[in-house]
């Protein structure tokens, strides 16, 4: 007998003692709950279409946005959306863990349409729903002092992507509002306002290139202005007439006495 079997026997015994001898009734109720289905009889008896192969899904365990999972499921089952019975059954297969346990707690025969199933599913896991941002959120974005124009554009694009149905005029106005007044592009957007966000980004691209070039030039100038290390702190080497090297000022010590080549013939 393995460890799992022993643990099962112990747990069964404890449950029997806690229920006061009604262990069989408790077990029967649990088995009935597992074998029951929340779908109506018509859904259960509906036949699958021929040659149907169950696609691979991202399983839902009750730990992220239920609307995102529902959209993911519908996009994969788009060719079978007319067959609601198949949609209901396959959706149940995408649930795992706590979500699968929740599914089996639904009353038997309580679900008669996929719309009802989607409603109770989202309602159960509504606390995991992602809060959607409205277009007014874009007016909170401001270009930072140490942020390049290109980085500001990337950050603005990322925030815009999280807003569904964002109006171009609102987004264009918010992008301009986030720029410093002394910025050249702010002046450009004021004189020649763009109608769409695509036009705004197209106008911003030359300014971003100019800003990148200016930043690179500043870095190069800063490196050129760095002080040169004094000769007294370097380990200078000079060549003698024989092509060898000798140390003038060894690092960390006193300067050595210079030696010269002695000639046998007077100059």
Biggest β-sheet strands, sense, barrel: 2 strands, antiparallel
Biggest sheet, strands in spatial order? 1-2
What is the global morphology? elongated
Percent of sequence in beta strands: under 5%
- SS elements, strand count: 2
Give the helix tally.
Answer: 11
Low-confidence stretches: none
Mean pLDDT: 76
Radius of gyration: 38 Å
* Helix/strand structural class: mainly alpha
Cα(first) to Cα(last) distance is 108 Å
Question: Helix share of residues?
Answer: 40-55%
How are helices and strands ordered from N to C? HHHHHHHHHHHEE
Characterization of this structure:
- By secondary structure, the chain is mostly helical.
- Among the domains are: 38-128, no CATH class; 135-218, Non-ribosomal Peptide Synthetase Peptidyl Carrier Protein, Chain A (Orthogonal Bundle).
- The protein has 11 helices and 2 strands.
- It has helices spanning 3-18, 23-35, 41-45, 66-76, 84-93, 98-103, 114-124, 149-161, 168-177, 184-191, 197-224, and strands spanning 237-239, 245-247.
- It has a two-stranded antiparallel ribbon with strand order 1-2.
SSE blueprint:
Elements: H1 3-18, H2 23-35, H3 41-45, H4 66-76, H5 84-93, H6 98-103, H7 114-124, H8 149-161, H9 168-177, H10 184-191, H11 197-224, E1 237-239, E2 245-247
Antiparallel strand pairs: 1-2
